[in-house]
Amino acid sequence: MKLLRYGPRGHERPGLLDAQGRVRDLSGVVDDIAGPVLLPDSLAQLAALDPLQLPLVEGVPQHTLRLGPCVGRVGKFVCIGLNYSDHAAEAGMQVPPEPVVFGKWTSAICGPDDAIEIPPGSVKTDWEVELGVVIGQGGRHIDEARAMQHVAGYCVVNDISEREYQLERGGTWDKGKGCDGFGPLGPWLVTADEVPDPQALRMWLDVDGRRMQDGSTATMVFGVAFLVSYLSRFMSLQPGDVISTGTPPGVGMGQKPPMYLRAGQAMRLGIAGLGEQRQTMVAARVQANPSTTGKA
Predict the structure, then answer these.
(1) Residue 168 pLDDT > 50, yes or no?
(2) Cα separation of 141 and 235, whole Å?
(3) CB 136 within 8 A of CB 239
(4) Above pLDDT 70, what percent of the chain?
(5) How much helix, strand and coil, in percent to the nearest 5, is found in the chain?
(6) 3-state secondary structure of 40
(7) 283 burial level (CB within 10 Å; 0-12, 13-18, 19+)
(8) 50 - beta bridge partners?
(9) Under DSSP, is residue 25 helix (H, G, I), strand (E, B) or coil?
(10) Which of 50, 4, 10 shows the shortest CA–CA distance to 23?
(11) How confident is the model at residue 131 (pLDDT cuts 50, 70, 90)?
């Protein structure tokens, strides 16, 4: 199945994509594509539905019908850094002996085609196409041999990053990773049964029509099963948690000279079988400070 969320920002409704590429409404069946809905038994019940018996939603998805992030009420948005050896090389960093783990704040999550605001003062906003893993059955201390049983499905993630914030401001990477809008998810959550081998997916990203990233999940240092098991040693994984698994080479920071995103530029990115995202960069909207003048 391809599960999705559609409608205005903050008011998305659950749906699925039928065989003809049309959206069918699931709001009479589930309240959202989130939490317990992602458990194996619930997914099996959704898979047993006849899409043709579900209400048809007007509009063409990603054209005349906005899609929101494909998972709602995300509890944790966990990311893995330097998980492709060739990306580590272009970043001038060593391949780590264990996964580099950092977080993106859930306030960064947005729809797959929403405009992305360049943060005020940003000079190094960058792109990263990544495979997102969505947890179904939660757990902790998960054995690697059973790890894939805990995966509900997969989606496209753009791990947008502000490199100055990330690397030149001290502290951890998080401050350059979690700005609002820096975590587009979708267009849909493709359930695990439709992805027989998540380590064999082509992935790519274009900026203004120029191919910048062209890689494959086959070159991950740490694969999906290992990452699910590894992360569960340090935190309980829960239904709807998202793991973003790293990016192949071709990011702006790795260009010679480096190339960063500007207002008006457009990104298009995708992963084989998981769909595409399209985003336009917009200038920061700076809010004026409330007036402090006047009578006390």
Answers:
(1) yes
(2) 9
(3) yes
(4) 97
(5) 20, 30, 50
(6) helix
(7) exposed
(8) none
(9) strand
(10) 4
(11) very high
Q: Confirm whether pTM is higher than 0.90.
A: yes
CA pair distance 93, 6, nearest whole angstrom: 40
Q: What residues contact 243, with CB distance under 8 A and at least 6 apart?
A: 78, 79, 80, 132, 133, 134, 135, 227, 228, 231
Q: How far apart are CA 193 and CA 196, in angstroms?
A: 6
Distances in whole angstroms, Cα of residue 266 to Cα of each of 208, 233, 256, 263: 5, 39, 20, 9
CA distances from 84 to 9, 135, 246 (A): 33, 22, 7
Residue type, 108: A
Write out the E strands in the chain. Answer: 2-6, 13-17, 23-25, 77-81, 100-103, 109-110, 116-117, 125-126, 129-135, 151-158, 161-162, 183-184, 189-191, 202-207, 210-216, 242-244, 266-271, 275-282
Residue 109 to residues 56, 77, 178, 273, 275: CA-CA distances in angstroms? 26, 9, 9, 21, 17
pLDDT at res. 93: 76
Q: How many other β-carbons are positioned within 10 Å of the β-carbon of residue 21?
A: 10
How many residues comprise the chain?
296
Structure tokens at 131: 């495979």
Q: Where are the alpha helices (DSSP H) in the chain?
A: 40-47, 85-90, 163-167, 224-231
Per residue in 260-292, pLDDT (tens digit) is 999 999 999 999 999 999 999 999 887 655 544
CA dihedral 111, 117, 119, 124 (to 10 degrees): 90
**Cβ contact 229:144 at 8 Å:** yes
Residue 45 CA to residue 16 CA, distance in Å, equals 13
Query: By C-alpha distance, which of 155, 133, 110, 152 is closest to 272?
Result: 155
- pLDDT band for position 95 (50/70/90)? confident
